[in-house]
Amino acid sequence: MKFRISLPRMSLFIFAAFSFSLFTLNAHARAETSFSPSGPYLLGPNDKVRVKVYGEPDITGEYEVDSNGSVSIPLAGRVQAVGKTTKQLEGAIRAALAKGIVREPRVNVDVATYRPYYILGEVKNSGEYPYKVGLTIMDAVAAAGGFTYRANEHKVYLRRAGVGREEEYTLDAPVLVYPGDNIRIPERYF
Question: Measured in whole angstroms, how far is the alpha carbon of residue 10 from the centre of its chain?
Answer without folding.
Answer: 39
